[in-house]
Amino acid sequence: MKRGVLTPVSLKAVIASAKQNLRIATTTEHDLMLYRLADECISQIGTLDGFVKMTRCFDIEDYKFELPEGFIRPIAIRLVGTQTDGVAGNVLYFNQDFLRQCDCEDTQFRNYSDLQATGQLSDGYWVFNTDINATQAVMSYYGRNLDEDCMMVMYEQQERAVRSYLCWNFTRIFYDLYPRDVRAEYMAEWTAQRRYLIGESVQRDFRNKRQQIGSIVSAIISNHNFSI
Amino acid sequence: MTRKQYIDILMSDLVGGDMFDEMHSSIRLVGGLLEIAREKTIVAYITQKKTIPAQLFQTTYPIFRKDAQYDECFTVFNLPSPIIQLDASKDSIGYIGGMNGTTPYIRSHDQSDYANSMQHPIMASIANREPVCVYVPEFSLIQINKTPGNLPKRIMVSAVFVDPTKVPEYNEEIDDYPITQDIFSMAKDYMLQVDIKQLLATTTDPKNKR
Questions:
Q1: Domain count within chain B
Q2: Each residue of A31-83: pLDDT tens digit?
């Protein structure tokens, strides 16, 4: 078993421990609701760990491609098929405003086109403005940290916060089964844990963000995988 | 203690000890009354104590109904006996899941609860990934819903059944009757107050003018 503050923990695990706390471990009747609450909680925590930078290849059809689950904003797009002898061509587009916001070195991308010049977001698709030859596009984007079932990924560090959120909401829904002070204690625990997680996350992100975005920019220019 | 031993105690305590009963009709009667008293007492006991004693649970492997199966959507399993309903929102099912006993299926309270859950994308996504079962008390059956894929055809159920003797895995001769000592004494009191009192009561005869 892997242990660490950034080790992903399954929602099933935190739901099992919350059910023990609520003394409903012998039933699975509320599991669907608990899954929904857990997913809602991880979105609500609002820490930067809930967002990741990713790169994926997309098939272009009718000058557009479908955006992935959890997509928030693009960082860069490279059109596949516009390179010769393994050297990336110049058909690169960068979300220059966003990169400047992230304090990236302007010299890394200022010679390339701006993303807004090539296309736009429309109804869950990236739609190219002009006729293009490429059949695939590689996009680096900023999005929610989702697992293969499109559920928010939770880390070990967040487990206590999610558990207290589940218990607080469950005791609120079934208020006739739990005394008021139990509900208040779960709410206090959730509030304190959320504050702690946000503080931790901001600290960590301050250290990592600039380096991560920088490595994405370098990787997409040189057509290599980047590491975060 | 087996069911017969419990019935012997009841016969002794309630009807006054040894009886010559060639047809065993009294035993059958007391046995039937015990089942009714057990159900009523369990409901009262659990409502008061908020917990279900482990001795009450019985494990069974319900019969898969091939005729009622629709592979794309659901499978149906027949239970040997109804399950004790504790109140409008709670029943006494402990486990419905895989044969290994460690993979419980998610439950929906009823079909309308399941249909409501499907309206939310997160709950629908979970339900599409894992089997979700619904207990239908009217027909004593379990329906397992899932989108096309591997629908389970063999399941295990652990619950408190209304009539424990109908569970195929229960052997009346050697297995312990699923009841605890305090529930049995409560059931005995109930039988004494309600059933036996009725049996022994002398009714008035309106036709008798004397």
A1: 2
A2: 999 999 998 888 788 777 777 888 888 888 888 888 888 888 888 887 776 55
The pLDDT assigned to A47 comes to: 72
More confidently predicted of B8 and A208:
B8
Domain span holding position A18: 8-48+151-208
For chain B, list residues with pLDDT below 70.
14-26, 69-72, 88-89, 147-150, 195-204, 209-210
A61 and A110 part of one domain: yes
Which pLDDT does position A203 carry in this prediction? 76
Q: Based on the fold, state whether residues B34 and B113 are members of the same structural domain.
A: no
Q: B72 and B82: one domain?
A: yes
Smallest Cβ–Cβ distance between A36 and the set B93, B120, B129 belongs to B120
Note the pTM of the prediction, 2 decimals: 0.72
Is the CA virtual torsion B113, B119, B121, B126 positive or negative? positive
Q: What is the ipTM of this complex?
A: 0.74
Domain enclosing residue B76, as ranges = 58-159
B41 shares contact with chain A (CB less than 8 Å):
no
- Regarding whether B83 and B123 lie in a shared domain, the answer is yes
Is residue B210, in this structure, part of any structural domain at all? no
| Contact: A28, B106; criterion CB under 8 Å | yes
Q: What are the structure tokens assigned to A207, written together?
A: 């250290």
Reading the block at residue B110, the tokens are 């009823």
Q: Which of A97, A119, A147 is the last residue of a domain?
A: A147
Q: Is the pLDDT of residue A228 over 50?
A: no
CB distance B107–A27 less than 8 Å? yes
pLDDT at residue A21 greater than cutoff 80: yes
What percent of chain A has a predicted confidence (pLDDT) above 70? 76
List CB contacts (< 8 A) between B125 and chain A: 149-151
Q: Which residue has the higher pLDDT, B177 or A130?
A: B177
Counting the structural domains of chain A, the total is 2
- Picking from B16, B151, B22, B175, the residue whose alpha carbon sits closest to that of residue B77 is B151
First and final C-alpha spacing in chain B: 50
Q: A156 and A95 in one domain?
A: no
